[in-house]
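seq as requested:
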Amino acid sequence: MEKSLKSGFVTIIGRPNVGKSTLMNRLIGQKIAITSNKPQTTRNRIQTVYTDKERGQIVFVDTPGIHQAKNKLGEYMVNVAERTLKDVDVILWLVEPGNYIGAGERHIIEQLGKVNIPVILIINKIDTVEKTKVLEYIDTYRKVFDFDEIIPASALNGHNLDDVVDTVFQYLPCGPMFFDEDTVTDQPERQIVSEMIREKSLHALNEEVPHGIAVTIERMKKRKDASKSKIMDIEATIVCEKDSHKGIIIGKNGSMLKKIGSNARFEIERFLNCKVNLKLWVKVKKDWRDSDFFIQNFGYRKDEI
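struct tokens:
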């Protein structure tokens, strides 16, 4: 039985905002990676685990979007994404449906040409276009790269995701599972909680602010309480780059910070399965995205900058 199992690492790549995190969350059936309609939402390499007792295990690696870097944090993100291509067994490339292949996609094609790994193209968001156009889009991409498979799908509504999993297993090597059956992610709880707070900030704030924020968890501790109900005390700091941004994040009479805190608390309580007492602060660290010290301090690994 053990010999018939397949296990391996699968990276999900693509330009920012094509639905990589949504796809990964949907495939594993739990929210781990944060999502928003703003680019550069995912900054770190996040691993999640899909286990099928009969077939084996897929370790999905969600990466930052591959884009033109404008600062050290951007360089870090692109390095993480591009380096991941060499460390996996299968590459899933997500694109949006369309006939136009832009500079961003061509850069990714160039990177894919440097590795000898099966590449599965997923044309995502097909629920947003006419069905008759899908074959046309498949043909457009087939002409520019020799994909092992092309699958039209919708991460948002789950369309064709069973096909994605079945196809991935076809290309994985035989071998034992890397993680226990009940493992869903290798991300520490603190990291996921800080990302959930950042996600709610991304959703609530104006365009110019979110790129320049980071979230650090100062304290995260279960309360020792005589009653049976569990309560987690969490203290976190939202770091921004400008004094004017601090004012926007706090809002009039603290209204914006309360909104972010309330939305984040709801999500964190669902994730931790307990009551949460969340306190948020806002600090300014000017131009932190161009500082090696702050990038590393906020949880981004120095060896990947």
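Strands lie at 6-13, 46-52, 56-62, 90-95, 119-123, 149-152, 214-222, 231-240, 275-284.
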